[in-house]
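Re: weekly structure request thread

Next one in the queue (377 aa):
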Amino acid sequence: MLYYLFVYLLRPHFSPLNVFRYITVRTAMASTSALLLSLLMGPWVIERLRDLQVKQYIREEGPKGHQKKAGTPTMGGVLIVAAIIIPTLLWADLRNAYVLLAMGATLAFGTIGFVDDYNKVVRRRNLGLTPRAKFSLQVMTCVLVGVALVSLQTQGAYSTQLSVPFFKRLHPNLVISSLFDHTYIWPLAYVPFVLFLVLVIVGCSNAVNLTDGLDGLAIGCVLVSSTALTVLTYLSSNAKFADYLDLQKIPDAGELVIFCGSLAGASLGFLWYNAHPAEMFMGDVGSLALGGAIGTVAVIIKQEILLLSIGGVFVLEALSVIIQVGSFKLTGKRVFRMAPLHHHFELLGWSESKIIVRFWIVALVFALFSLTTLKLR
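Done, posted below.
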């Protein structure tokens, strides 16, 4: 909105406003707006959540030290989502399909989390949507994202090829091109692409959700990952950088940098209130929305595989749950004292603050490694 005001209405009469045509400037403004919105609205949101009795209910089977957190306001993710969407609306070119797609996915996953959190609050226990219902809604959202990307691909604005780290010339295509010769079954050619997209986005969303178990842990890791994605998105949208680094060039993804900047700014602002001891929790409305946003951006800029490193902590947390469940079902034994992984370290005697900071450090190392792979090809 401000983008149109400054660039199209006022710039002809005041030339210094020409600076708002630059993506870097608007990304900085979006990040700052998201940060300030989070900081300024935080106290009001916390107070409103307390007035509405929106309190966290702690699992009885969880670490005993977490029981003291019962009653802390939850569903603070509504603040995160607002701090992402509003600055994007203000500073991005809303004619850009990728921006609309990223915002739509964020809102959709946030809505799923909101319904889940609302059910927990109403029932006064740590149970929300059934796993089947939650998963089905997530898959439906991803299918819609996939349909939108397929539409862009047919227009020549998107590629279904993968970028494989360390391999300069390897770009496998997830579309079965041989099916295009058949009039009625050609849509099946895109099935592998859509299934892969579901795996990436749903997996990322739930991995962030699993990581959200300690004060500031998930949001700090999201801050690191979103900052790395901001850099990668900018490089992928810039012809010179993309060519130099052998990235798949996504020309129209430039405006998506502004969305990523808002994501980073909102994460930093929420961390102010979510840092240990947390004044509010993000809830599923925040964790599912953040994971969905990160996964969607990674799919758009063709960094789905590199996302394993960008979100390395999320991957480790998700793997710990998969390994724990699989081991217990197959052998009746547990690999970890408790899953997700951060609970294992809690039961080993690590303090909550130490776990959080060390996981942040690991997240930063993973993100830096991801950026270094751009030239290791």
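The chain has one domain: 2-372. The chain has a mean pLDDT of 88.
Next request, please.
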